[in-house]
Amino acid sequence: MTNDRWIDLSHPLVSGMPIYPGDPEYQARVVSQDTENGFLVHDVSLGLHSGTHVDGPSHALTNALTIEKLPIDRFVGEANVIRVMPIGKIIHTNDLDALYAELKAPTPRLLISTTHAKNWGKDTYFAASLEFENDFPDWAKARRLELIGADLPTFSFRGNSALLCHQALFQRGILLLENLTNLDKLASRVFLVACPLKFQGLEASPVRAIAKNNFE
């Protein structure tokens, strides 16, 4: 990889965009528009898990940290990128481990590229999302990971158990970055910026995730 420009890892927020089943739809409307004497102003309504976003611990745990209380440096800094080929719908921990072992300089942030982002806008993006094995949270904790991102709509154990997977990862101090794209354009080590908005008392936030391959 020789591209030294910032690479956008975020899906656009737009009317009609893919939304996790059961979540609120994204809506934007003009509140004020006066091209001669005023400003253009929009009102936006969306769920906090729309598009590319960060999940914080309070998304799945009671009495857990909300999004504004998370250290901002968790979302900014060097990150590793690994490309895994799932078998069926399953991302096997042994495959992750083999790829992770090849990294020359492990960091607390890991981006997992699965090519599932190619299904964005299709029914299969949600209906046929990939799943992790049950030992994935322990594997991640053993490698001292603090933030994991993927080109997936959610983190789920095999058998479609997203809640248990989120709880296990949050209990191990790991934050989640979901609905990423363009991970195939990244080198094995990048500089990542994916800061959440400072929503007080809330559990998640959309982000504009970007990364740079050559940053030294």
Descriptive report:
- The protein is α/β, with parallel strands linked by helices.
- The protein is 14% helix and 25% strand.
- The protein has 4 helices and 13 strands.
- β2 (27-32) and β3 (41-45) form a beta hairpin.
Radius of gyration: 18 Å
Q: State the major sheet.
A: 9 strands, mixed
Q: Give me the number of helical elements.
A: 4
The side-by-side strand order for the widest beta sheet comes to: 1-13-11-5-7-9-10-4-12
Query: From the structure provided, what is the oligomeric state, counting identical versus distinct chains?
Result: single chain
Estimate what percentage of residues fall within beta strands: 15-25%
Instruction: Name the average pLDDT.
Output: 95
Please describe the structure with a list of short key phrases separated by commas or semicolons.
single chain; 216 residues; alpha/beta; nine-stranded mixed beta sheet; two-stranded antiparallel ribbon; 4 helices; 13 strands; globular
Set out the fold topology.
Layout: E1 6-8, E2 27-32, E3 41-45, E4 53-55, E5 76-83, E6 90-91, H1 93-101, E7 109-113, H2 124-127, E8 131-132, H3 136-142, E9 147-150, H4 162-171, E10 175-178, E11 189-193, E12 204-206, E13 210-212
Parallel strand pairs: 5-7, 6-8, 7-9, 9-10
Antiparallel strand pairs: 1-13, 2-3, 4-10, 4-12, 5-11, 11-13
